[in-house]
Structures
1.
Amino acid sequence: MAITAEMIKQLREQTGAGMMDSKKALEQFNGDMEKAAAWLREKGLATAAKKASRVAKEGIIEVYSHMGGRMAVMVEVNCETDFVARMPEFRQLAHNLALHIASAAPTYVAREDVPSDVVAAQITKYKEDALAEGKKPEIAERIANGRLEKFYEDHVLLEQPFIKDDKIKVKDLINDAIARCGENIVVRRFVRYQLGEES
């Protein structure tokens, strides 16, 4: 199948990949747009994993106010250079993260940020609940681990389903931005205030 400039343009818009990568993907999959996009996403995830160790000290602090000033979010999103910090894609990511935090109210940025005593308390509670439901100890252990995953999904920003597309997690959204921008991107910290809320 002949790969047209229009096909390359469409795939670039869909994935944010470069022109040569888009052409190569379309050639490799004989013009199949879905397979080419999936291949580019996998390649982007591999790129994101390589870039994860690089230092990200530039970036922006995005501030979002909602409900007539009754709720506000401030999130620090870092990248490697001020060039990327000025890119519309990076700024859009920071804005989307602030919207997500306002809506989903996560408590922690990453799994590693959840204190070990909180994790231990949750596992103990989930095991006790499973045993109280009449489950065998070895099954209660598996149930506790499954419920801990749900706890992470509810309370950890990177593990939450993204509010604008619940088929992807927030960490996937960030990995996609890393592939598009070509730099490591890190959510450093955030704070969410709601009027009258106890601290």
Note: The first strand starts at residue 58 and ends at 66.
2.
Amino acid sequence: MHMGSWSFRSAGLLAAALFIAGCADQKPTAAAPAAAPAVADGSKEQVLLGRAMVIEHDCAGCHGGAGPDSKGWLAGVMSPQQEFGIGACSMKDPKAKPCFTTRPRNLTPDSATGLGRFTERQIFNALKFGLRPEDTPDVDITSTTPGQGNFPATPHYLAPPMPWTAWRYMTDVQLKAIAAYLKRGLLPFSNKVAESEGPPDFWAGIYADTTMVGPYPVRAFPAASEKPPQP
């Protein structure tokens, strides 16, 4: 792996800053995400679309590897330089408190150390709703309210800086394609990643606050900080 600690820690600081910044308090509208090309579930085209999304969205910037032909591609933390400090320690003194260490996980389909034991729907639910796949049943989720529409009553969320709060605005076609690539387009790579640290509520208190993570669906254009383009 050829990425230095600056790349990983810079990405972590940026993600943490974006995570904390949030947006202005306005009522959301039902604006739909941009359309994605239709692909059939289980097809090679679906896997290739997922591959393109993973590369273009720089998943390797946190999860490892310099490209699909490199060793450890998306295999997760393989050195301490790939870990992120979230909290006061990420912006100030490295020893400042509170501080939680988060570790990008192994995304390859290795059954023992990666995503191999999860279904594509569980991976999709993680990308769409930010739910840890090991704590989320293999079901269609139709609500973001805990306890409704198969949304877990006690959500166990992915820890920052995983940017699922932005990824949820992608289309279901795109997110399903990413899940298909991670399950069916990668070779398994054995790499055991230690659990990320987090507060007892699994970040639920933060993610429930739309001023911190932004509303879903996204507000219609133009929102408070936008303006229509002039002809």
Note: The two ends are 48 Å apart (CA to CA).
